[in-house]
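Here is one chain, start to finish.
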Amino acid sequence: VQLQASGGGLVQAGGSLRLSCAASGRIFEINAIGWYRQAPGKQREWVASISTGGSLGYKDSVKGRFTISRDNAKNTVYLQMNSLKPEDTAVYYCNAQTIPKDYWGQGTLVTVSS
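Its structure:
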C-alpha cells in the first residue's frame, strides 16, 4: 500500500484547509485510514479515522472543526479542517491499517498563524 498526502500549507487562524490522502497498491487490504499529526517537539497523535465500513472517529480537540471523508472512486481520503487554530500546526500524516501492518504517507505540513 502506498499513500500520498497533500494539501498542507500556511493559513491564518480561523481559516480552512483540505488534506488529501491518495492510496494505491493493495487497497483491498485496508481496514481503515486515519490522519495523525506531529507538532514540533511532541509525539505523533491520532486526529481522525474512517473505516472501510464508514465508522468515523475524531480526537476531542478537533470534533466539530475537522471532517474526514472518502471518495472510493478516487481511492482518496480527505480531512477538511475548518476554524483552524495555531495549536493545529503540525506535520499531518495519513495512515492505512491493514493486517498485519500499518502504512504511512510522507506527511504534509500545516502551519496556522495567529
